[in-house]
Amino acid sequence: MTRFTRIGIIGAGSMGGNMALLFAEHGLQVSLYDVKSDSVQAVVDIAKEHDNTRDKITGYKDYETFMKSFEKDKQQPRLLIFSITHGHPTDEVLDSIGSYLNKGDIILDGGNEWYLDTERRQKEMDELGVYFIARRGASLSPGGNKEILDNVILPFLRTVCAKSEKGSECVTNIGPGGAGHYVKMVHNGIEQGMLSIVCEAWGIFNRLLGFSEDDIGYIFTEWSRKSELYNNYLISIAGDICTRHYKADDPTSGHILDDIEDKVVQDADNTEGTGVWSIQEAAKVHISVPTIAAAHLLRVASANRSDRIEFDKLVKLEKPRLIENLKKNTDEFIEDLRCAVYVSILASFAQGCNLIAATSQAKHWHIRMSEVIRIWRAGCIVQSDYIADLLQPLYAAHEKSNDEPFSNILLLKPIAADIEKYYPKLKRVVLLAIEYGAHVPALVASLEYFKYMSSTDLPTTFMEAQLDFFGAHSYDLKSEHAMNIKKGPHHYEWKEA
Q1: Active-site residue numbers?
Q2: Model confidence band, residue 355 (pLDDT cutoffs 50, 70, 90)
Q3: Max Cα-Cα span within the chain
Q4: How many C-beta neighbours within 10 Å does residue 317 have?
Q5: In degrees rounded to 5, what are phi and psi of residue 201?
Q6: What is the dihedral of CA 91, 97, 102, 107, to 10 degrees?
Q7: How many CB atoms lie within 10 A of CB 366?
Q8: At what angle do helices 441-453 and 290-303 cross, to 10 degrees?
Q9: What's the chain's average pLDDT?
Q10: Chain mean position to CA 53
Q11: Residue 486 CA: distances (Å) to CA of 91, 234, 459
Q12: CA-CA distance, 186 to 191, in Å (whole number)?
């Protein structure tokens, strides 16, 4: 096993800076570079404040001295970690350090990235004898060269990765090529669905029930301590967000949440691409992901606040309003909402996991979904113990006799049982939320997803007729019970020539 004494990190932002401090805490010397020298200095200054990191992080202002910093350790191979924006910045860094790279060097790309760009860079680095590995987050999902991953990278990452409550190290070899970045991309797609579900629940509490932020925070915290939402990261931090005052010891100082604008811009300003990529991939491999898509489109719409303001002036549409007649049944509704949140989060998981499975099968990545769920138990945003306890053994049982993941987890009996159990509660919440003007796109999308995925008589019968009418696209007959996914053999001449 290779023992690293020094690592180099390129990118000293929030993620890169925290990684530098983490590695320093584990006794490693860290060489740190960023195009913004102030960011590097800020991390070095933090390191100086603590005994276990003092003198372990050294900042550099150019690539030449940064790369030469490894010479004193005489360490081979050298390990470089990128924590930079996706897209062309990564290519620019590779171009800048290319002349300093040695055969056998290892680059871990720790940012979110389009997996096809990852595979392109792996081929380019292969020509130099350099290993380019994709990994991301405290829950680590690296993918790439199996020998280097298993014998060099994984032993190292196990020392710094997140550990779940069950003692499991949240790192695994996801698969070849861009599999690691692909799984992290879909993780973020699932995350977007969950983010929207939780914020929609907050909106219902706040606008329809008129609850105070502190009361909402208390409910979220209670949810995170038991049952289906136990140890769900987003539910847990929701409690903290709602109860956070400007002055911790002064409840009259106001809630921070009350001053935050309603626009999410990370997608619209192109600093975040994983949501877009997840939806694109789902369309390409023909996997239905309505919860994830609805959540993403809400974010996109929220970013353009100026257009929303102007449109609001032109139309008189309903706004969220209090449900006055719910007082006697408030506790029952809160329980319905809890179950609706859970089963909608399950929808987001199902959609994302099915997307990973479809691509793994198409690319022969042989991704072990039981391992993916295992490493999502800690150190990541989609952490949710009940769902992990539900999914991990189901995938593991399938993997005993199959080298590719189960294609559609809706077809697994325990999943179907939970959906059947909680669907009525989700429907009650959605109906009431729509009646009183709440914004619930992800909850609605989850309801419709379960409804049309369980239907054997969709209105798409009529759509098939339309397509055949104007495009002679042909169709199957009900009497033939055709199950294959290809055009039917029948056509009708709807209009005389």
Answers
A1: 184, 191
A2: very high
A3: 87
A4: 8
A5: -65, -45
A6: -50
A7: 16
A8: 160
A9: 91
A10: 31
A11: 41, 41, 19
A12: 8
| Coil vs helix vs strand at 465 | helix
pLDDT category at 135 given cuts 50, 70, 90 is low
Question: Could you give phi then psi for residue 79, rounded to 5 degrees?
Answer: -115, 120
Strands 250-255 and 245-247 come out as antiparallel
CB 152 within 8 A of CB 106: yes
Cα three-residue angle 369-272-136, rounded to 5 degrees? 40
Choice among 67-76, 231-240, 286-295, 361-370 with the minimum mean pLDDT = 67-76
Contact at 8 Å (CB) between 110 and 132? no
Q: Helices marked H in 325-455 — which ranges? A: 330-363, 369-375, 385-399, 413-435, 441-453
Locus of tokens 């930079």: 84
Instruction: Map residue 77 onto helix, strand or coil.
Output: coil
DSSP-derived 3-state class of residue 59? strand
The residue type found at 164 is S
Name the least confident of 201-215, 230-244, 316-330, 467-481.
316-330
β-sheet bridge partners, residue 6: 29
d(CA 492, CA 303): 47
- Measured CA to CA, the distance from residue 210 to residue 101 in angstroms comes to 60
User: Which DSSP helix (H) or strand (E) runs through 60?
Assistant: strand 57-60
> Would you state the structure tokens that stand for residue 419, as one six-digit string?
């959906």
Tally of CA atoms within 13 A in the half-sphere of 444 that contains its CB: 14
Distance from C-alpha of 486 to C-alpha of 473, rounded to nearest angstrom: 11
Find all residues with CB under 8 Å of 379, minimum gap 6, and list them: 137, 138, 139, 140, 161, 162, 170
Q: Distance (Å, rounded) from C-alpha 377 to C-alpha 110?
A: 19
Helix (H) / strand (E) element for 193: namely helix 179-203
Helix (H, G, I), strand (E, B) or coil at 159: coil
Q: For 437-453, how does the pLDDT look when each residue is reduced to its tens digit (9 = 90+)? A: 999 999 999 999 999 99
pLDDT score recorded for residue 328: 77
Residue where the block lists tokens 């301590």: 225
- What pTM was computed for the model? 0.83
How far is the C-alpha of 58 from the C-alpha of 30, rounded, in Å? Answer: 6
Which of 95, 91, 104 has the alpha carbon at shortest distance from 63? 95
Strand pairing category for 79-82 and 6-10: parallel
Structure tokens at 200: 């929609």
413, two tokens? 């009996």
Query: Strand 57-60 and strand 79-82: pairing?
Result: unpaired
Q: Give percent helix, percent strand, percent coil of the chain, each to the nearest 5.
A: 55, 10, 35
Does residue 268 have a pLDDT over 90? Answer: no
> Could you give the CA distance from residue 34 to residue 53 in angstroms, rounded to a whole number?
19
Task: Return the amino acid letter for 310.
Answer: E
Give the other-Cβ count within 10 Å of 110's Cβ.
24
Amino acid at 436: Y
